[in-house]
Specification:
The chain is an alpha/beta fold and 221 residues long. The protein is built from six helices and nine strands. The protein has helices at 29-45, 64-67, 69-87, 103-113, 169-180, 214-220; strands at 47-50, 58-61, 95-99, 117-123, 131-138, 141-148, 157-165, 184-193, 207-209. The protein has a seven-stranded mixed β-sheet with strand order 5-6-4-3-7-8-9, sandwiched between helices. β1 and β2 form a beta hairpin. α1 crosses α3 (69-87) and α3 (69-87) crosses α4. The longest helix is centred in the middle third of the chain and has 19 residues, at 69-87. It is globular, with a radius of gyration of 18 Å.
């Protein structure tokens, strides 16, 4: 998260009030070590609530990552490294699409790291002007995502982000909207994943998760 300043730097230029971030190649040992350390720090900071929102569910709360400014900065840095490690420096996004609503928490900050635009995928009826619409199934029925038609230009590389992948329906709907608008879908990036719901099986582009799943955490503990 960028520090507040009294002036606004030009787009795609670093803020002179911040120390320059060392640029590392995606495959360098330094990058891998930094990303591993960041992931461990972030995972330790998650809060777990058993039997929420229903019995048998272990809810992992990501809000502590935003309550602490140092953790927030670490999260954005880890996501930046995850993107460059997975897609390479030459395939960074032109647009980051955040899913309603927690994708809005970190999507804009991540987009700024790549000099990219941010576009929200919102629930139906929340966006003004011409939009494209896609339906997806939820446990209690059908819902809809919309993206403004001028949000994505043909050929732009697009990354979809959200806090967690569960059934994959909402992410799949966002992916279909990106392709309908002519965007090139790079893939999907989530903070967490509920592996047992197999949501990634519904997605037709690379899927990456920043932090390990609950099952992996239990195995490693």
């Amino acid at each position: 998260m960028a520090d507040s300043t009294s002036s606004h730097p030009s787009r795609n230029r670093p803020d002179a009030t911040e120390a320059p971030q060392k640029r590392l190649t995606p495959s360098s040992p330094e990058t891998s070590a930094e990303l591993t350390e960041l992931k461990m720090r972030l995972h330790r900071s998650l809060r777990q609530y058993p039997d929420f929102p229903s019995p048998g569910v272990l809810f992992e709360d990501i809000m502590p990552l935003f309550a602490d400014p140092l953790l927030h900065k670490s999260l954005i840095r880890a996501l930046e490294l995850q993107v460059t490690s997975c897609f390479g420096q030459a395939q960074t996004p032109d647009i980051v699409v955040g899913l309603d609503a927690r994708g809005f928490l970190f999507g804009p900050s991540l987009a700024l790291k790549f000099g990219a635009g941010f576009v929200p995928a919102r629930k139906k009826g929340k966006l003004p002007g011409p939009t494209e619409t896609a339906a997806f199934e939820k446990e209690y029925g059908q819902d809809f995502f919309q993206i403004q038609r001028d949000g994505i230009k043909p050929g732009q590389r697009v990354l979809v982000v959200d806090d967690i992948i569960a059934t994959g329906g909402s992410a799949s709907a966002a992916g279909s909207l990106i392709k309908k608008l002519g965007g090139s879908l790079l893939g999907y990036l989530f903070i967490l994943e509920l592996d047992f719901l197999k949501g990634r099986d519904k997605l037709d582009a690379p899927v990456h998760t920043l932090l390990s799943s609950q099952e992996e955490s239990i195995t490693e503990a």
